[in-house]
Amino acid sequence: MPFEALPSRMPDPGAGAPPLLVIAGSTATGKTGLSLALARALRDGGVPAEIISADSRQVFRGLDIGTAKVPAADRADVRHHGLDLVEPDEPFSVAHFVRHANDALRGIAERGSIAILVGGTGLYLRAVARGLDADALPADRDTRAAVEGMLAREGLGAAVARLHRLAPKRAARTDLSNPRRVARALEIAELAGDAPLPPPRGYPGPV
């Protein structure tokens, strides 16, 4: 359907979920440029669109150059979400991102806009577009290596202490005498924190 034939206000599919377009890909493949071009083309056709960045580095304030963050001029032209949410030394997990994205999606739906989810952090993309149970998080090689390195250097006690700090609820239901289970629980805690994610029931609107 050509852009000019689209209705000026897209119907809300329910549950505060606007229609969602997903642009995914690896670094430096033109995702940002494509998302901006698409948002502007939709706007020119009478359909407003807003962009949600799904990049685990762009959530941090001040990390603009190294993360290829969208320039301020483009953000002023097309509304963006998911950028500059926390300071670099603040914890931020996929659970935090899901809560932010859901808030953004409700606002986008209220404004009658289309949501464009764009980024290269697959965990963030899947959590919003498909739903993701924290206990079913796929293994993350870098996080697992960091956890195993901590266990090797500092021992089980240090890993258990960190698990208690990051995710006390998860620690309470983990066999803390089993290094493998502590390592997996700590990996999940590093990725998702202690808050449960929405069940993996899929995005409630058209994707």
- Major sheet: size, sense and barrel closure? 4 strands, parallel
The CATH class label of the largest domain is Alpha Beta
Query: What share of residues are in beta strands?
Result: 5-15%
Radius of gyration: 19 Å
Low-confidence stretches: 1-14
Overall pLDDT score: 82
Helix proportion? 40-55%
Number of helices: 8
Number of strands: 4
Question: Remind me, CATH topology of the largest domain?
Answer: Rossmann fold
Q: Could you say which overall geometry the principal axes of the C-alpha atoms support?
A: elongated
Secondary-structure class: alpha/beta
Q: Please identify, by name, the CATH architecture of the largest domain.
A: 3-Layer(aba) Sandwich
Protein architecture, described:
The protein contains eight helices and four strands, in the order βαβαβαβααααα. Helix content is 43%, strand content 9%. The relative contact order is 0.17. The chain has a four-stranded parallel β-sheet with strand order 1-4-2-3, with helices on both faces. The chain has two domains: 3-129, P-loop containing nucleotide triphosphate hydrolases (Rossmann fold, 3-Layer(aba) Sandwich), CATH 3.40.50; 136-192, Histone, subunit A (Orthogonal Bundle). With 207 residues, it is α/β, with parallel strands linked by helices. The radius of gyration is 19 Å and the shape is elongated.
